[in-house]
Amino acid sequence: MRIIRDFKMPNLKFKKIEMNDIPNMEDVKVDYEKVKEAEEKKKNKRGPYPATEYKTIKEVFIRSMKNYADYPVILQKPNHKEPYRKYTYKEFGEDVVGFGSKLIKMLPKNARVVIVSETTYGWYVSYMALLCGAGIAVPVDKELPDNELENVINRAKATAVIFSARKKDSVKKIANNLPTVKYFIEMDSDEHIIDKQMGMNYLIEEGKEIWNQGDTSYMDIEIDPEEFKVLIFTSGTTSKSKGVMLCNRNLAANINAVSEYVKLSTDDMLFSILPLHHTYESTIGFLLPFAVGASVAICEGLRYIVPDLQEAKPTAMLAVPLLIENLYKKINETIKKSKKEPIVNSMIGVTNVFKGFGIDIKRKVFKEILDNLGGNIRIIVSAAAPIDAKIAKWVEDIGIKFLQGYGLTETAPIAALTPEYEASRYASTGKAVKDTEIKLINPNEDGEGELLIKGPTVMLGYYEDEKATEEVMKDGYFCSGDIGKIDKDGYIYITGRSKNVIVTQNGKNIYPEEIELTLGDIPEIQECMVYGKKESEDAHDKELIITARIIPNYTKIEEIYGKNLSDDEIYKIIWNKVKENNKKLTSYKAVKKIEIKKDEFEKTTTMKIKRYAEINKTLGISIKNRNI
User: 66, 159, 491, 554: least buried by Cβ within 10 Å?
Assistant: First the structure.
């Protein structure tokens, strides 16, 4: 649904890397008792962590308010120049109860409430207040054009809209076209009620008065785990958005499932970069750490990733491959410019040998690199799209545990995850989580089939669309539309999307994501999309040409080949690189045509290319075609 136009990763800047503090390997003493213990641990593989058994998010809220009152929960910068302001669980809890207590006096039961905002403290308070009984939360993409925002609010039949100051003008423009909306609530505003307009801070204070007078009706609300509580409109890359209906059971099951595979504590701090209207960030990036007393530091925006990491010093981060790839490239460019590439590569090899004997000195050796990321990062989780296994391995080579997750909005979102206590399988998106079954349907000769998911994280259904729900739910299984393999240990390997598959005339299935990963290794290519292009206008001719639409990496090309190159010269450079890459592929997967694209790909907010929009483009883009 959401399209990011002209999306570009910022130019991340890291300090010069000297690598002067590397410990002398001769001074590293080997404790053979520890080596023996490490070998025993390998033989006796560690199992899952004890899992939580929550039924609702209100249970989580009540427990965390009791156990972690004085711990920080949200860190937010008032502005770029001021330091992070810490909100404690106690402050947060009082604001949630205050807001909820007031909202239930204003709204009918199960009223739909739209939240449209950048990541901010007010978003978290609003979402939690609704999950605990104030209404049905409808988190919406803050980047939606006004007409689409209007459409979503009307489709949801929202009674109230909670918005940030940055969205005030957009909401004001469409207010008269929203017949069901009775309340417009501005975050971080003290304004009293004037007609339909009011400030969230004012409502919170009013609600605290209600609570202080002994009215506990908000906290007395019992939450049905199966009741429709969250409505999320997907930003799918293939078709019109669908409304996904989620319940407390879905969200609580995610917390329970992940707690078995990853251990977080009050010492942990997550770094919030991704948009909260996606369940990946709102569930795993907020509700999960909230359940264990951890905190969340809000990143001010992509351009501030590096300074915010260095100030907040988080221990874990959820990311998408595009972000991780950019961190990898920028850090390695810094290492290369510092002429430290040989020593870094050498130390990766040495520390891997030591780690094999149970002696992990990576964080000491690569401290200078890790300090660029704040110094405390111990876990990075990648999801939403495939990532190059080479990059995943590099993350672990410098001392950070790399995990991958798999799921969809329809699974709220986690269906599979890498257990942190098992050795990483970099090409895999993990294994099925607690109480979830994932199986293949109609696997081909290569063992690839569509992934079907069954478990407590699977959605209630699509909003006001029984037909669409029936199409994806088969005998209790959700048909994901993702194609993949499952190995003997239950690890899942995603090959592609069934809707993206290119079927050749002789019946071969080609998954563009596979080819895109190999093309992504070419330094001269910034980004690409592979698809099957119909050459002939003859309806009977079904042959599809494997085509790569490519955005060149002009900076790298200039660095390697010089300045002032013509379009034809750049084309030939890319063409030759693609031909070289074809040698790594099975012949029928070879790219036969390339298109040079000069503008950015349209993307969702999780930075996935909008394939259907790109393929259907006929106007407004500059593409140069040539057969190979």
Answer: 66
Q: Per residue in 310-347, is it b (16+ CB within 10 Å) or e — as a string? A: eebbbbbbbbbbbbbbbbbbbbbebbeebebeeebeeb
Instruction: Enter the DSSP assignment of 491.
Output: B
d(CA 150, CA 313): 39
Phi-psi region of 6 (alpha: psi -120 to 50; beta: other; left: phi over 0): left
Q: Is 9 helix (H, G, I), strand (E, B) or coil?
A: coil
**CA 365 to the chain's CA centroid:** 29
Q: What averages of pLDDT result for each successive group of 10 residues across the chain (628 residues)? A: 40 72 56 59 69 97 98 96 97 98 97 98 98 97 90 96 97 97 98 95 98 97 97 67 95 98 97 94 97 98 94 96 90 90 93 89 93 96 86 96 95 96 93 97 89 97 95 95 94 86 68 88 93 69 82 94 93 95 87 92 80 65 47
Q: Evaluate the omega torsion of the peptide bond into residue 413 and state whether it is cis, within 30 degrees of 0.
A: yes
From the list 414, 408, 42, the residue with the least C-alpha distance to 237 is 408
110 conformational bin, left if phi > 0, alpha if psi -120 to 50, beta if neither: left
Q: Output the CA–CA distances (angstroms, integers) from residue 398 to 271, 387, 426, 427, in the order listed.
A: 19, 17, 15, 18
Q: Tell me the whole-structure pTM to 2 decimals.
A: 0.82
Residue 601 burial by Cβ neighbours in a 10 Å radius (0-12, 13-18, 19+) = buried
Structure tokens that stand for 251 in this block: 């969200």
Choose among 47, 37, 65, 202: nearest CA to 122. 202
Rounded to an integer, what distance in angstroms lies between the CA atom of residue 557 and that of residue 294? 44
For 566-622, the DSSP string reads -HHHHHHHHHHHHHHHHTTS-GGGS--EEEEE-SPPPB-TT--B-HHHHHT--SS--
